[in-house]
Amino acid sequence: GAVVSQHPSRVICKSGTSVKIECRSLDFQATTMFWYRQFPKQSLMLMATSNEGSKATYEQGVEKDKFLINHASLTLSTLTVTSAHPEDSSFYICSARVAGKPLSGNTIYFGEGSWLTVV
Amino acid sequence: AQTVTQSQPEMSVQEAETVTLSCTYDTSESNYYLFWYKQPPSRQMILVIRQEAYKQQNATENRFSVNFQKAAKSFSLKISDSQLGDTAMYFCAFLPGGSNYKLTFGKGTLLTVNP
């Protein structure tokens, strides 16, 4: 089946610095990718929808300037947490929609997720 | 806007027994999809089963089956012959038809399978 890879799986950064998380579709093209945040023992919260070649669409309450999303190619979307603070520590997970196919559960794939710890 | 409700935060079942996880949703859409995802301790989201709203027949995938009641907006997951590897967080999710590709998740049910 299709594979979505996230990197890094774990990252620790100092408060005030920026950190980038990559989401790659390894064997398919993804026109749309989604970024979620998940707190411990909670559900996935959609942060933004990343569209190839255009600006990301952010959910209400998500700071656009803090969580920069770039989807420069059909196989790569990046999430950059700028000026990270301890409250940004969380599990971030991406998903990707297979381009050109009717949307269904079989054509949305999730990455393995990335743990971010800001110290 | 759609909402998905999972009323059971935690459940447990003995190995080899059957368990049912509940999910209800609210929507004004006529065309949509419903899913159950499994999230084990590794945190990888794994699709368990999906149901297209226009299909009356309940979806089944090996030991997993759903009871889809469209009029009642209910979508429960039945796991038969529970295995230790089924221990995970289970999320019910809703996806509208058309060009809105956003999944709406329930809060999840933590299922523990006991030996």
> Major β-sheet of chain B, in short?
6 strands, mixed
Topology pattern of chain B, helix = H, strand = E? EEEEEEEEEEEE
What's the overall geometry of chain B? Answer: globular
Number of helices of chain A: 0
**Helix content range of the residues of chain A, please?**
under 10%
Which range does the strand content of chain B fall in? over 45%
Q: What structural category do the secondary elements of chain B indicate? A: mainly beta
Structural class of chain A: mainly beta
Draw up the topology in text.
The complex is a heterodimer of chains A (119) and B (115).
Chain A: E1 4-7, E2 10-13, E3 19-25, E4 30-38, E5 44-51, E6 57-58, E7 67-73, E8 76-81, E9 90-98, E10 108-110, E11 114-118
Parallel strand pairs in A: 2-11
Antiparallel strand pairs in A: 1-3, 3-8, 4-5, 4-9, 5-6, 7-8, 9-10, 9-11
Chain B: E1 3-5, E2 10-14, E3 19-21, E4 24-26, E5 32-39, E6 46-52, E7 60-61, E8 64-69, E9 74-79, E10 88-96, E11 104-105, E12 109-114
Parallel strand pairs in B: 2-12
Antiparallel strand pairs in B: 1-4, 3-9, 5-6, 5-10, 7-8, 8-9, 10-11, 10-12
Explain how this protein is built.
The complex is a heterodimer of chains A (119) and B (115). Chain A is built from no helices and eleven strands. With 119 residues, chain A is mainly β. In chain A, the strands form two sheets. In chain A, strands 2, 4, 5, 6, 9, 10 and 11 form a seven-stranded mixed beta sheet that branches. The N and C termini of chain A lie far apart (37 Å). Helices cover 0% and strands 52% of the residues of chain B. Chain B is globular, with a radius of gyration of 14 Å. In chain B, strands 2, 5, 6, 10, 11 and 12 form a six-stranded mixed beta sheet that branches. Chain B is an all-beta fold. The interface between A and B is medium-sized, with 21 and 21 residues.
Provide a short characterization of the protein structure.
Chain A has 119 residues and is mostly beta strands.
